[in-house]
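Quick start: what a row looks like.
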Amino acid sequence: MAEITKKSLEHLAELARLQLTAGEEEKFLQDLGKILDYFKELQEVNTDNVQPMTGGTMLKNVMRDDQSGGG
């Protein structure tokens, strides 16, 4: 597992203003370790020939411009 310690978990919980029980701490340590391991795995993927994205979509806003409604 990636390195996440009880001390770093306690620090994160304090920043998020969470009060964790001992059982929750153990579960979070395991879960966060798995997440960090997955990021390690993703870093090993060869992305040399992949163009960076500049946006998520080519869609444009289809809503009308606001207009004042005289009256």
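That is the whole record. The chain has a mean pLDDT of 88. Residues 6 and 26 are 9 Å apart (CA to CA).
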